[in-house]
Each structure stands twice: as structure tokens, then as C-alpha cells.
Amino acid sequence: VQLVESGGGSVQSGGSLRLSCAASGYGSCMGWFRQTPEEEREGVALIGWDGITSYANSVKGRFTISRDNAKNTMYLQMDSLKPEDTAMYYCAAHPARICGGYRSVVDYLYRGQGTQVTVFS
Description:
Layout: E1 3-6, E2 9-12, E3 17-23, E4 29-35, E5 42-47, E6 53-55, E7 63-68, E8 73-78, E9 87-94, E10 110-111, E11 115-120
Parallel strand pairs: 2-11
Antiparallel strand pairs: 1-3, 3-8, 4-5, 4-9, 5-6, 7-8, 9-10, 9-11
């Protein structure tokens, strides 16, 4: 499965961005993680084949993950962005029936090249 992210950019604090992840194939478990040069990878959100979602506490209520299985595309709607959301965002996919929690996204089998999100105050 090849994954290609898009939709990153620079936005003022409080603004919104929508990330997309186009997959060449179907991934039963899909999600997003982010990474900065100073920190380890952090799972952000995941969505299972059954539509069940899981979010990191730091983004809960601000980010919304969704997927369109007919298009093999996943989205991350990011609202009320904060400077601490600045990071490289990666989409990931995993062929499993049990997807785990949002933290497991960092270990998913397939991942994209990433898209940069910068939030300035």
C-alpha cells in the first residue's frame, strides 16, 4: 500500500487545515501520527475498517478523522490549531482486524512521506 499525503501548510493559531491521504490499496486500519525534530513520533488519530475512531487527548475535540473507502482516501480535519500542533504529519495504514489505540499508529506497516503543518501565533 502506497500512501500520499497532501493538505499541509502554514496557518495562524486558531485556524484550520484539512489533510488528505490517498492510498493505492485498502488499509483496514488507518491513522495519522506526527513528529518534530525535537520529539518522538506521536500518534494523533486512527480510524478502523468499522469506522471506530481514537484520538490523542491533545487533539480530541479539535481534530476529526474520517475515511472514504470507495476512494481509498483518509482525511484529518484540524480545527482550532495551536502552535504546538506544528509538526510533520504522516498517514499510516495497517492490514489488521484489530487496530489498537491511537498510539499504535506509529508502528503501522505502511506510511507516507509526510506533509508539514506549521501553526504560527
